[in-house]
Amino acid sequence: MLKLVSAIRDGIANTIERVTSKITPQKSNKTSSNLINPHRSEDSQVELDTNFDDSVSKEYEYGSWNKTKRHAGNGQFDADSIQGSIGDCGLMSTLRALRNSENGQKALSDVMSYNPEKGEWSFKFKTKDFTEGGASPIVVTKDEIDQAIADKRASKGDDDVTAAELAIEKYFKQIGRDSENNTQDGIVKQIVDIQNRARDKRTAAGMEDKGYLNGVSPYVAYVFTGKVPESLNVYEPSEKQKAQEYLENFDAKTDMIVFSQINTAGVANSGGDNSFTMIGNSQVLQNHAYTVCSVDGDKVTLRESNNPSGTIVVTIDELLNCEGNNSFYASVIDDN
Known about the structure:
The chain is α+β, with helices and mostly antiparallel strands. The protein has helices at about 1-10, 90-100, 100-110, 130, 140-150, 160-175, 180, 185-205, 220-225, 235-250, 265-270, 315-320, and strands at about 110-115, 120-125, 140, 230-235, 255-260, 275-280, 280-285, 290-295, 300-305, 310-315, 325-330.
């Protein structure tokens, strides 16, 4: 437990900034290249730490790394994965959200191909670098996955998920600090810049820099779908209302929703203290991302990457009004 709490304390600060063009919950056709609201103060930030239904309160349960079974790649996201030591709950919850929907699964299969004979995965993301710039596919090998799992660095469970993690890491590392010249896609530039600023804030607070997977925001869904998720900050009344509409109209065929539970103080300021909070009767990790998997009436089922087989069931009202500077990342994934 001390190791896990230490991992939480060693999480990163991740800037979460709003989308400028508002998207209706029913259908989103966002095409703007401007992801970030230029009028929002750079000091107005919340931080995302990326690690680690009853009448009585339910204590948070961690999953078991050792008991999580590893499933060989097959080109599909069809098995649970537990998060490794790199703080990428935003990415893991996004991948789970895409896997959760029919259209999301199709989007993933369009991006990723698997060659069982070579034991390698090839990724052509839906960004201008690949669709217009002629970038070579990013290749991930089984040997690379074996090493990342042996180091407990990336996730364990579904090798296809681990391959996607490592492909994102390679892509963002290629772009690096010089996003102005190393990507042709303005939205990708902004996603990488968000992470770079978060890494800088994290290291300034004396935390370890774990590289290009640490603190990836749920905006990363864009590279898989070609569509920017709408960021809805529930402390803003109009955005809270829109988040409620997304939840009430949730369609498991087309919709992806990631919920980011953010400590009010922020990780860098709190030093990782106050690691838990309550949503309804369920104890959850603060500064962590969760996937909305289903909505039945007013009951929302969440799943997360530190205990992927577990479920958290809360009401819509409890989710919208729980403590913290919280956000939803929501998108309707097109059927094409």
